[in-house]
């Protein structure tokens, strides 16, 4: 058995600077995912408000869209919490979300003119978060 366990967590191969840099990347990633989670939660509240402020053509469809958005927001909140705790499962969840976010963003850009800035913002967040995840993954393998 190896001596590097919870009883002896020191690793002579890592210096303090590499660990601090990775911790800052993980913290930044947690902040970005938290922002994305808050934006999706705000979107869910927007969809809920539209149900009560306007008469939807399909009430059950409006509730389904709200429920799906709320489930995604809840998953992102859990992912943000897991990211701050440096859980390894968050990497896959974040990359999957960034791909989905990129797809949604491109539909915003191709759609209504007023939503195009939102689309570009989502694309920038998606690319920036993906780069950080990839950088963190490659640093953790060193």
List keywords for this structure.
142 residues; mainly alpha; 4 helices; elongated; disordered N terminus; single chain; 77% helix
Structural class: mainly alpha
Low-confidence stretches: 1-6
Counting DSSP E segments of at least 2 residues, the number of strands comes to 0
Gross geometry: elongated
Oligomer: single chain
Task: Please tell me about this protein's structure.
It is built from four helices and no strands. It has 142 residues and is an all-alpha fold. Helix 1 packs antiparallel against helix 4 and helix 3 packs antiparallel against helix 4. The protein starts with 15 loop residues before the first helix and ends with a helix.
Short recap of the structure:
With 142 residues, this protein is mainly α. It has 4 helices and no strands.
Question: Which helices and strands occur, and which strands form pairs?
Answer:
Blueprint: H1 16-53, H2 59-84, H3 90-110, H4 116-140
Helix pairs in contact: 1-2, 1-4, 2-3, 3-4
